[in-house]
Write a structure and sequence with these properties.
This protein is mostly helical. It has one domain. It is 39% helix and 5% strand. The chain contains ten helices and four strands, in the order αβββαααααααβαα. A four-stranded mixed beta sheet has the order 2-3-1-4, with helices on one face. A hairpin with a 4-residue loop joins strand 2 and strand 3. Helix 4 packs across helix 5 and helix 6 packs antiparallel against helix 7. The protein is globular. The chain binds zinc ion (ZN). The site of zinc ion has 4 residues, from helix 2.
Amino acid sequence: MSQQRWWTTPSVRKWAWELWRYYAWRPSYHLTLTTAEATAYVDMVNKQVVCNPEYPYPPLDLQASCRYLPKSVRDFQLEYLESLIAHEAGHTHHTGTLPAGLLGQLVNIIEDERVERLMCLDFPKLRRLFVMAADVDAAHAISHSGRGGDLIRGCLLHRFTWHHPTWRFVPDGADAHHWPEVRRILEAAWLAPTYDEVIEAAKQILALLGLPEVAPKREDLTVFLEGDGLRLKAKGGKNAASGDQADAGKSPTKDKPESSEAENAGGGQGEAAKEQGEQTGPAHVDEADGDEEDEGNGGRGSGRGMGAAPERPTIEEAETPAAELMRLETEG
Ligand SMILES: [Zn+2]
């Protein structure tokens, strides 16, 4: 019998699914936990959300500068996973079609901060989680490539560090003289009331830097952005354009990836849920199961944020026979 990862247990899968319901209120989505994904993505066309439950702990030399960092790696992974689920849920509420190429990456960078700020309005307790996640992301970015770089990287690093007590992006590229203006556009876009204004801001920044809107994706940014499965579309929208698939197939983890379907895990999804929770198999939530009224309520103020978030599970190290039965197939 192969060793079972902690996040394939029913309690974790049930918790992850309840988080998705709590933050997204979209029961027709299919939630997958998998270490094959570097971070996470949401595919609003195919109603898929995919999250990595084993995001790496920050490097030792920068841990002391990471605020709210849990001492235990397992606690960290649980909290980081919750931040990912809430973040992806936020995209389904606030984000429209993502352009291709570098423009799409820059839109993604800007929109990630805007979405998290909007989610914090509905769920104030997320602020602490998002600060923790941003500090950890900043630590990985700084550890990998330092605090400098060109201004596109600056847009990413500034998103992670603008609220940090000491970490700052230090522009040291040939485009450094544009930083005050790029930063002004960037910070204004974080507060933009609409997604269209985010796209406009990204176009402005590219124009300022003399970069074409059709420039290809940059490999150095991909690890800090949503994966290639990311497909965002306008609410009620048609088919979404997606980013290009040029760098599909990257393998972010050394371990053999495993995955777990999170929905229907471990029983009911709360008293108000309409789904049948008795299934023990990896079934999709029935699309016809009353999700239309939920899905149509995607905007803010639809009652989300009432009550407390689902409690984090206590991880049992030992495998139980019931858990073994619940185990779902591994994706290749
Ligand atoms: Zn995002």
